[in-house]
Structures are given as C-alpha cells and as structure tokens.
Amino acid sequence: FLTDRVYHFDLADSDFPLRVRPANANDQIALTNGGHQRVNRVLINAKIPSIKRNQTSVLVTASGTVLSVLGVKATFYRSVAETTHTYFLVERHVDQ
Question: What's in the keyword line of the UniProt record (predicted)?
C-alpha cells in the first residue's frame, strides 16, 4: 500500500541549504496556531514507539529551523524574507 504526503514551504535563498539530520532533544516544530511543540512530543502524539524515536530525522533550514519531522509531521513555514519561492516536500511511504 502506497501513501504519499505533500507539504509546501515558502523559502528564501537564505534558508538554503536544507539539511536532514537526526532529531535532538531541543528541536521544536512550529504549529499553525503560532505555538511550538517539541519534536519528542510530536513523536509521542503520533504513537511512534520509543525505540524508533531515537532514529527519527528532521529536515532543517540553514538556520536550524525544523521544517519537518520526516515521516511524521511538517510545519507550515513561510520565510520572513521579502522574496520567497514555494517548494514541495513529497514523502512516499510503502507499507510492507
């Protein structure tokens, strides 16, 4: 069974390069209501087993802003720069 998720981000040139790195204890993701949530709480709420939480990766901007907890959740991110472009993140999952 194939499931795709598509997220979009409005990014400025200064947001690049994007990096994928292991999640750490201080990472937070922006929520649509303007608040923030720790990545660990996102994983708990998504019912990710604790053994897999240590293997989670995040997509971050050049300044370290978390755009996505890969495979779990993404933020609605708009750069504060005057000129931005819309980029899409497509996550493809195959259940085995």
Answer: Ligase
